[in-house]
Amino acid sequence: MNDNVIIIEKKANGELVQIDERSWSVGMIAMLQNVNYLSVNEKEYEMVEGRLNVNSGKMELLVISVQEEAAEK
User: Fold this and answer.
1) pLDDT of residue 2
2) Which end of the chain has the smaller Cβ count within 10 Å, N or C?
3) Nearest residue to 40 (alpha-carbon basis) of 11, 9, 12
4) How far is CA 37 from CA 52, 57, 63, 66, in A?
5) DSSP states of the chain as a string?
6) What would the pLDDT profile of 31-67 be if each residue is shown by its tens digit?
7) pLDDT, average across residues 17-40
8) CB 10 within 8 A of CB 32
């Protein structure tokens, strides 16, 4: 069984941008319990929070770019 997951990046200015949507296996979703960072299109992101959108039936993950976060410090 696979579920659609949407990854949304929160930019430094607060803008939310969808960066990915794809089907994830149950195993990949289960691994979210053990990770804080993920890579999408060769870019690293820190996971901030996740939610289940009941209306769309999709999981949404809010992430911030590790590179942008490091540049702000």
Assistant:
1) 79
2) C
3) 9
4) 19, 23, 9, 9
5) -EEEEEEEEE-TTS-EEEEEEEEEEHHHHHHGGG-SEEEETTEEEEEEEEEEETTTTEEEEEEEEHHHHHHH-
6) 999 999 999 999 999 999 999 999 999 999 999 999 8
7) 94
8) no
Taken in order 13, 14, 15, 21, is the CA torsion positive or negative? positive
Spatial distance between the Cα atoms of 18 and 11, rounded to a whole number of angstroms: 11
Distance CA 60, CA 8 (A): 7
**What spatial distance separates the first Cα and last Cα of the chain, rounded to whole Å?**
41
- How far out from the chain centre does Cα 16 lie? 11
Nearest to 29 by CA among 53, 50, 55, 56: 50
Residues with Cβ within 8 Å of 35's Cβ and at least 6 positions away in sequence, in order, are 47
